[in-house]
Structure formats: C-alpha cells, structure tokens
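Run log, item B.
One chain of 172 residues. Sequence copied directly from the ordering sheet:
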Amino acid sequence: MKRTKTFTQTPIIMLLGGAAAGLFLLLKPGATLAAVIRIAGWALILDGAIKAVQRYLKGKRQMEDFYLPCAEIIGGFVFMAVARFLIKLIPLAVGLVLIALGVYKGKTALELKKRSNAGQWMIMLALSIASAVIGLYVLLHPNGFTQTVIRILGGYLLVECAEDLYAYWLSK
C-alpha cells in the first residue's frame, strides 16, 4: 500500500504562524479580540474600496453601482468605532441564547415527562438547567467568559498546529 503525503504542500511558515497566533490568543485574550475586530473593520474598508475601484475601471459610473462598496466602507468604519461595544455585546448575546435554550429545553423535558414514564426527561431537564445557569453566569461575568473562550480557542489552535507540524514532519 502506497502512503500518500498529504502535507507536502503545506508551508511550514503558515503552521508556525498559526502556532504563534494560538500562543498570542492564550497569553493576551483581551488584546486579541480587539485586534480581530479591528482587522475585520479594515477588511470591510479594503474590500469596499477594491470593489469601488473595480466598478469604476469597468466603466460603471452610475451612483447605484457604488452603493454596496460605500456601505461596506462605512460599515468597516462603524465596526471599528464600536469595537468596545461589540466586545461587550458578545457575552451578552451568548448568555441570553444559553438562557433561552435552557428554558426551551426545560419545557421540552417537562412535556416528555407527561408523554412517557421514562427517566430520560430528568437528564434533559438537568442539562437544560445547567444551560440556563451557565447563561446566567455568562451574563454576570462577561469578561471572564470572553477571555476563557479566547484562551480555549488559542489552545485548540496550538494543538492543531502541533498536530499539523508533526504530520508535516512525518511526511518528509
């Protein structure tokens, strides 16, 4: 059986860059989230500017042709202007979703209890209560939640890059 080398095309610099990004996520979670939001804002601005120039060079000179690129550029500036608000909004949204899902699943568990005598509804009810409690915790401690999630993502990225580097090394 012939062994295929799947990672021969993967540049080692990209893997090391991913590992560096994962390490940065682990060590500086607050700065990382702000940087990601700024990068996303600049990406919107750059994409809108490129689309506007492309449409101009194609001979499209009507105002309607520039609505979307201009909206994208403005959206990028707004995105960067409200970066701190967006950082605070993420845990709020996650907390509310977890609470809503916990309540919905709790209702489903109680309906399951009425339909059958099986003990499965208790597990579902316990998990729904856990979801609601986690959502409440996220609402009460938003900074800790955001930093924890970013650190988990950084650790995951480090592990993935280490696995890819090992596979790359094995393929040589």
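Observations after the first pass:
- The helical segments are 12-27, 29-57, 67-81, 83-115, 120-140, 142-171.
- DSSP finds six helices and no strands in the chain.
Flagged for discussion on Thursday.
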